[in-house]
Write a structure and sequence with these properties.
Elements lengths: L7 H13 L11 H17 L6 H14 L5 H12 L20 H13 L9 H14 L12 H11 L6 E4 L6 H11 L8 E6 L5 H10 L7 E3 L2 H7 L5 E6 L24 H10 L1 E12 L8 H12 L2 E6 L12 E7 L12 E6 L16 H16 L10 E5 H6 L6 H4 L8 H39 L3 E5 H4 L5 E2 L2 E2 L1 E4 L11 E2 L4 E4 L4 E2 L2 E2 L5 E3 L1 H6 L10 E4 L7 E3 L8 E2 L3 E5 L6 H9 L1 H9 L2 E3 L2 E3 L2 H5 L2 E5 L1 H40 L2
Parallel strand pairs: 1-2, 1-4, 2-3, 4-5, 6-8, 15-21
Antiparallel strand pairs: 5-7, 6-7, 8-9, 10-25, 11-12, 13-22, 14-18, 15-18, 16-17, 19-20, 19-22, 23-24
Length: 680
Amino acid sequence: MIAEAANPAAELAERLWRAYAPYRRGRGTVGDLDAMLAILVLAAFAEAGGRPEGDFVKRWKRASAEAAAGFSPVAELRGALQDAARHPGFPLPWSADLDLGSGPDDAAWMTAFVAALDRGPGFGEVAVAEVCELLLQRHAAEGALPGGEFYTPRGVADLLVDLADPRPGDRIMDPACGTGSVLAAAARYLAGRGPVGDNSFEAYAADRSNVRPAMLNLALHGVSVPQVELADPATLLRDRSLGRADRVLSNPPFNQRIDGWEHRQFISPPESSANFAWLQLAWSQLKEGGIAAVVMPARAAWAGGAEARIRREMVALGAVLAVIALPAHLFAGTNIAVHVWVLGRGRRSRPAQRSDSVILVDARSVGGQPSERPRVLSGEDVDRIADCFRLWLGTSEEVDEPGFARAVSYAELIENTGNLDPRTYLRTESGPSGAADLSAMLADFERRNREASELGAELAQIAGAQDQLAQDGIRCQSLLLKDVVSGDSTAGGRPVRLLAGPSGSRVRAQDYVGVGGVPVVMPKDISDVGFIVDGIKCISEQHAERLDRFRLNIGDIVVARRGDLGRCAVVGEEQQGWVCGTGCFVISPPGTVDSHYLAAFLRSPGAREWLDAHSTGSLALRTISLEVLGMLPVVLPDLDTQRSIGEAMASFDAHERRLLDQLATTRDIRSKALNSFLAR
């Protein structure tokens, strides 16, 4: 059912869907939504805006009569649309482009649909915008529409609008409007404050198939002559003036590739994952004092690499006002949990008393029962979240609410490498011991399981994108590793090198110091998902300075030269300045090679088999030389493809680290549970 509550709009929407649904089977349904919404526009206009003797009203009535008698209404519908388009009050800028009934099987479902529409109640008794919203919701729920950016659930759309709080006369923009759900929510919000026509709605569709349904949706929500254009974020930034919108509201595509990204407000985002391109676009389009509310995948709040650097820069600039974690299963067809980022442009977007903090909200527990699929944000849920943000934004009152909301200072955010995940700052502290300790551990374990599930769903999307990349075909060149690193002498300020660690005589057992020294990476300290800190040995800073040529830089790859050949890890910010130890190699690739891609290649079965075949030593302890490593054949696609593959593999590595942490936690819980039982 479209809705359980008995109301005229829900009853009409349910009847229309039941009339249409039998004709979906065994036929292409592309364009059905466009035609369905166009019929609603025409019917509403004929009832509300046309004189009985008007040509388009007469043709609409003939179409209704023909449908009721079981005859095709297509010809009269086309004529009615063309006649209505010449009327000065008609809300659409075109009609012929719709091409109603062009498919061989369209007449059958349109006959049933128009007949159901004519059986009442009339549009004088229902809110046509509500009928439109319910039909869109049903299309998404039944799989007739893709999910995600194509349809934003009403609760999520209402939350975006409430957070941005558009005012009458505002210019409101959505750079990835999908079927127009978010701007339609803005129109509903503004309708209670004045004429919707006083506002400017600017909509851009990232997918061509969304242009018509978005335009029709906005027309049904009272937006006069809505304009929806096809555009991607790079085009918007290149071809249009910036800083023209009072509010930007959007639910853009997640984790997709973006080509031609040249303009940047902050650090350039990875081309293979455009999440931060959309955030930068939203922020750049704002006027001074403007506010944006944008849906993002959860990983955008904590992902490392370039994305972490962008977050820190956004925080330092004061661009981030709030990040709100929402529950999983809000969107049809996916269990991905999302965050809402609220951005502000300039000092006027936030009061002076909030000049150095961000409000983080963990609202993952809202949205009905966790077992319900999909979960729905109620009006009360939206109000609770929006009221919390407005309290932080508009007053100096205390807003912290344990487990739900907390104002976090810039200093703390920067100290946490720009991590903006509310879960990081709102975790419940564990009890002192015993049952309380176990209870807290179980709660944390459940939270981590949810996070792992959410990340797993995102990884499925990432894997699908990589599979499509492979199917499209990738042109590669084959080079020896020594030739790969023989290019530029520097890359990003670091030397390009293929180097063996220092000999044992330069770092002796007595040289190691206690806590506070510089870590020295040995083979035991490397795993395929990162560096192992437990048990790592350190030398003094003075000793490390004497080994300066072996110091590690961000983007270097440390490779074990013995044992499990091919085992390697990419140096991040935490390992900056560490020392490559005996028994390891360090690779500093040039700017034309992505470090994460090269590390993933070294770990691949083919590379490991080659290294094993060219190794020396016993079966228990294989060893390779620097010369052998340099002769390893490397398959090298173009840089963009490398980055896409490398970022995908880095995401899988992060997921594996989480699973390993969960395994350790599981063992700890088992031990504590047993001890708790035996102590009774």
